[in-house]
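Appendix C reproduces, verbatim, an entry submitted by the partner laboratory led by Prof. M.T., so that reviewers can inspect both the input and the predicted structure.
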Amino acid sequence: MYTRLIPVLPVGDVLAERQFYESLGFQLHVDPDEEYPESVFAALEFGPAILFGVSIAPDFRADSAESRLWWQFETSDLDAVHRRATEAELRVVQPPKAEEWGRRTLKLRSPNGYLVTFEETSAA
């Protein structure tokens, strides 16, 4: 019955948010049955397991973005994600750090104010 969860992030600037994720290795997902202006919506993917959208929200406020969503990705190579982020001059809020629960995390701030956490796991 249900086939996939596809979260959609409200943003004030679709192109900036898209470029943020593309610099981390995500790709634009093109659905031949849907066509949106680039400034209104973008679907992003990484392999077959990750697909989400970013959509323009006229009333979007970056100062409240973090309270709307806690966004986390699992990764098998946190240092590679950190290198990509640094090379792309993305805003690193917290460099790779060992957490008390036993995993390492990296936190970035997206152009629209979302706190994007990457957690390293051997199962990713």
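The radius of gyration is 15 Å. Additional entries are available on request from the coordinating office.
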